[in-house]
Amino acid sequence: MTNETTVVEKVTGAIGAQFNEGRETASQITTWVTEKGLDFALNLVFALVILLVGWLAIKLIAFTVRKALMRGKAKGRLLADFICSVVTKACWAVLLVMVLGRLGVNVTPLIAGLGVTGFILGFAFQESLGNLASGMMIALNEPFKVGDVVDAAGHSGVVLEVNMMATVMKTPDGKRIVIPNKSVWGGPIVNYNALGLRRVDLQVGIDYGEDPERAVEIIRETVARIPGVLAEPAPAVAVASLNDSAVQINVRPWVKSSDYWAVASATLTAVKMELGKAGVKIPFPQIEVHTAK
Question: pTM value?
Fold first, then answer.
């Protein structure tokens, strides 16, 4: 009987302790709600208002910045996207600090921690930051755009995509190449579409027994009839050099950049056919050997 009484007393005591603890907690909550609840509710409302107004302001700022960039000298979409992204993220960071401060959160340690974290990340991702900086230079200078045919970083092809970290190209044989912007900006960039026109540089050799002036005239008339060859600048056809086996003639018509390969192929075919019809001999490489008696 004594043991049963002891157990009941222990259980009753535990329940009483839990009840007292719960009552004390409820009292603390009631006191906090009474003394600080109203201030917290007001701060919460103000924080939500700041967040809403800030969100609208950020959208307006991003729109204004994009419109100004696209209307000014820096018309590149890549640069506009990047600057708008940076401005938006910076505005959001300031807005969140304001909201947390309104809610009573001490943001000083948070800002200090972000500074240290930023330094560590900057050191760890210095290669990526180099690509980002090069992407900024590409966006500012616009040495090429999507659709241009370029030589860059030892590769040739059509530009498919340009972002802040890399340039994507398609090679003539159908390969997709992703080149870090640091490599692209770190070397010469040749853009075949930038000026709209290209000169086709070809060479034709005729036999030493042929009349070079007649051959030049035949070639000039032939080139002028090829579709895609521009009248201005006028095609240049002239004797270039006296090689071992042939008199070398330069054939240099001007074309639109998009017509380059078609005109180059058509020019070689037409010149070969017309010289053959005119009886002008195109020699193959040969060596004359004289034997001493």
Answer: 0.56
